[in-house]
């Protein structure tokens, strides 16, 4: 038989398990805002598959729909349902079959947004605390539950016109 007593002021949870006492620390909920399309049912397919650890960081509880966080303090933040990105000149990385647009404008905070998936998922990663590539690998199995509708293209993927017309994807 297990009974649980919460001591909110002390920030501890005491669990009694057939005569044993276990003490665990209580970590604060990570405050986040839901993305514009957080209620999209496809986000639920991703969220229920999020791993309990990412880059060896423990999962944290968040207060917003279709979000995730890992690390204490949080080094990885996830939002599902962000605006689907338009074509961009920012670098696009393919990691385990998932295309990610990388924005290092706020380095050491890196922003990765899925490309060619609707709804889009955004990650904010503190590169001083965790490797971005490890995070992208660890989250690929969850993110792949949002079906791909397109993929990143580079200059090598375009047929460049010789007659002044607009470039088109190579066939």
UniProtKB/TrEMBL annotation:
InterPro entries: DUF3515 (IPR021903)
Pfam families: DUF3515
Annotated PROSITE patterns: PROKAR_LIPOPROTEIN (PS51257)
Domain of life: Bacteria
Name of protein: DUF3515 domain-containing protein
Organism name: Cryobacterium shii
